[in-house]
Amino acid sequence: MTPPPRQPTTSFYESLVAELSAARLTGRPEARSFGTTRPLQGDQLREWVASQAWYEREAACFIGAWLRDVPEDDIFYGLTRQVADEGRHHHLFSRHLADLGWSLADWRPEPEWIEWIQVFYPSGNDTIERVAAHNITGELGAIQAFESLYPRLPRQTRTIIDRVTPDERFHVQLGKMTVERYALSDEEKSRVKARAFQALELEKLGRIAFERRLGPD
After folding, report:
1. What is the chain's percent helix, strand, coil content, to nearest 5?
2. What distance in Å separates the CA atoms of residue 47 and residue 210, rounded to the nearest whole number?
3. Considering only Cβ atoms within 10 Å of each terminal Cβ, which end of the chain, N or C, has fewer?
């Protein structure tokens, strides 16, 4: 008798991504996408571009600061490339912001963004916690935000997103590789999952803060 076909197994990474994707759709509408469903233009567009320019610079800084404490050579190599990517993204968004008539000189982040980007992401006990939070939750959130925003942005801004998105997908793959190679025990998987969902809650608060910053339509 021919044995029944083996059912495909779902990896820890795949299960984590599925849970994060489902959780990202829950809660307040303004937590699901920057600017809910409104077209972003004028000062609202400038606010979003400024927040992206600031975030990309912060990411280059905190990922760079991780490197001294990354013993895994393959992840170290990937993160060095990612630092360069984040720096280039900062340059692209900053130049676009200048074209829109703004700069970061007098721009200040919301308190929720400081807690999320400057406090939470730089922390973490080891490589798997740090990379899971940022490169899985954070970068998947960035791609989801880009996809949600894309039809509501002017052509020039969409051009920037087209240049940034392939790098974000590489960062997600780096997160996937980190989890699949190094989060092997139940204890490690539990820490990764907890850290990833902490990042998601801070992401949601950050998006709500952006809506507050934009004010009423």
Report:
1. 75, 0, 25
2. 9
3. N
